[in-house]
Amino acid sequence: MTATVEERSAPPANIGGAAMIDRAEGWRRRAPLLPALVFTIIVTQIPFILTLFYSLQSWNLVRPGSQEFVWFSNYVDVFTDSQFRQVALNTVVMTLGSVLIAVVLGLLLALLLNRQFVGRGVVRTLLITPFLITPVAAALLWRTVLLDPTLGLVNFVLSPFGASGTEWISQFPLASVMAALVWQWTPFMMLLLLAGLQSQPSDQLEAARVDGASAWSVFRELTLPHLRRFIELGVVLGTIYLVNTFDTVYMMTQGGPGVASANLPFYIYQRAFLGFDIGQSAAMGVVVVIITLIAASFALRLLFRSFSGEEELT
Amino acid sequence: MAVTTDTPTDERASTTDEGQSPRKQRRSAANVWFGVIAWVVGIAFFFPVFWMVLTSFKTEADAYTPTPKLFFQPTLEQYEGVFSSGLGPYIANSVAATVLSTLFVLLLGVPAAFALSLRPVKKTSDVLFFFISTKMLPVVAAIVPIYVVVNQIGMLDNIWTLVILYTGMNLPIAVWMMRSFFLEVPGELLEQASIDGAPLWRTLREIVLPIISPGIFATALICVIFAWNEFFFAVNLTAANAGTVPVFLVGFITSEGLYWAQLSAAATIAALPVVLAGWVAQNKLVQGLSFGAVK
């Protein structure tokens, strides 16, 4: 990545260019970038610095004047809070579970859609629709029309198998939320992996087939290694988006019963907007940022590698 | 897995002797079956959406039957009900927040993407790294100070608060995406133009813009999808004045299990613009969501 960018930015055979001209040229190049850069820094970075600052304070909004500097006591509270640990675990299960299931289902669907058949475009359009539905609307739909114990479609479909009357949302809250998330994110994984399948050189596949390789060995030895980059990308992107899941939890279960289906975004929201505890929710926010930064460092490496990989190909 | 079922190894081997056509026939026969499976799965995935739209045309009595009703007398009363319970202003807010933030994203993002691609600044990769890293920070960690600041400057329940936040939310994605479109512009075209002595802005308007305008359109559609669907900021920072459509839908979780048909009508209205935008942009969807990493 870095190498390719440097190449492009190098002035084309500029022999003995004066420093003054270079500097003016530098600013001319920078000018179109600055508004976007400054705006992004203000809108996205200042809140995080403030979060860091608030996290060191004891501050409850319902007690005016209660703001005072308390060093790390909020962090001590966060780590001794057993609910927080439960919620952190829920977050990991919800995020990774949904992402992995969506990737596997998405791979199967992508393999199907990579074939020629009548109405392939229509099927693809049908399949991506769950991903486009406003998450709040989708969650409402799951909570009522689909998963309602007496009148829901899921229990109606399952009633021949003796599952009628199952109270999905209260008996399996985390799984219910995950079902809605998988339904929404499988299409994304499918699109991503389909793009991967279609970027596979067809002459390579044809050659393997002429050599008499079985479909399974072609898949395992050519397609899967080729898809690896796309699968990794799917896992990483899915994790980045799904770790922030809030809408689905809020609309389907409100984190309940207890904190059985609460994830970190919802729990922090509860602390801040129902408990008005600014200091503690800020401290939790900082903890989430640290966890996310660790995950994101993998993500960034992967994204940059994807780019450099692609630029090598062209 | 699915690939193995149609053509076991021995069949493949035997057909190679007989030449191309039987194998191709076999493969197309298999494709018919895969087509059938794909259609079934596609319909299954789409069915909840279909059911939502269907339910929105039912009366509440038709929506609550132990055996779900497929055939019924369609009615528009739910849509009337939704609008008479005050959906209109929420739609206006959603449209304002979505359109304005997307415009700002393009105004800020197109020049920035240009400065990171065709005429790159020094440290381009550092800047790109910064933009993408902002998408990896969880919004939930920023909501507390945002709420406190917005409250202090009296901007709670104000549509401009959402416009600014949505612009910040979408700008990094848009910059990355549009940069990948700019990089597709052939370098020779620009060189030729600069040799001919054409000023830069004319080069941009007459050569670059026509090439990348489909890309800009796709980027705008993706920004529209994200802004329209956004809920976290909207529910925490707005109320009756500046509430968006997702905030309106929250009202239905309190009216426990009573208004399914009306709920479906509201959900259909909420989802419709984005579903249409997404259908149009479906080829570019992955490119946007993967920050341009996958074409």
Walkthrough of the structure:
The complex is a heterodimer of chains A (314) and B (295). Chain A contains 15 helices and two strands. Chain A has 314 residues and is mainly α. Helices cover 74% and strands 1% of the residues of chain A. The two termini of chain A are 14 Å apart. Chain B is built from 15 helices and no strands. Chain B has helices at 2-6, 9-18, 20-56, 60-63, 77-84, 87-115, 124-136, 143-152, 159-182, 187-195, 200-229, 232-237, 245-254, 260-280, 282-289. The chains are: A mainly alpha (314), B mainly alpha (295). Chains A and B meet through helix 1, helix 2, helix 3, helix 5 and helix 6 of A and helix 1, helix 2, helix 3, helix 6 and helix 7 of B.
Outline:
The complex is a heterodimer of chains A (about 325) and B (about 300). Chain A contains 15 helices and two strands.
- What is the SS-derived class of chain B? mainly alpha
Q: How far apart are the termini of chain A?
A: 14 Å
Question: Helical proportion of chain B?
Answer: over 70%
Structural class of chain A: mainly alpha
Taken from the alpha-carbon principal axes, the silhouette of chain A is: flat
The global form of chain B is globular
The largest β sheet of chain B comes out as: none
Write down the oligomeric state.
heterodimer
Spatial separation of the terminal alpha carbons of chain B = 26 Å
DSSP, total strands of chain B: 0
Averaging pLDDT over every residue of chain B, what do you get?
83
Keywords summarizing the entry:
heterodimer, A: 314 residues, mainly alpha, two-stranded antiparallel sheet, 15 helices, disordered C terminus, B: 295 residues, 76% helix
Q: Topology, please?
A:
The complex is a heterodimer of chains A (314) and B (295).
Chain A: H1 2-9, H2 19-30, H3 34-54, E1 57-58, E2 68-69, H4 73-80, H5 82-113, H6 120-132, H7 135-146, H8 153-158, H9 168-171, H10 173-198, H11 202-210, H12 215-242, H13 247-252, H14 264-274, H15 278-313
Chain B: H1 2-6, H2 9-18, H3 20-56, H4 60-63, H5 77-84, H6 87-115, H7 124-136, H8 143-152, H9 159-182, H10 187-195, H11 200-229, H12 232-237, H13 245-254, H14 260-280, H15 282-289
Helix pairs in contact in B: 2-3, 3-14, 5-14, 6-9, 6-11, 7-9, 9-11, 10-11, 11-14, 11-15, 13-14
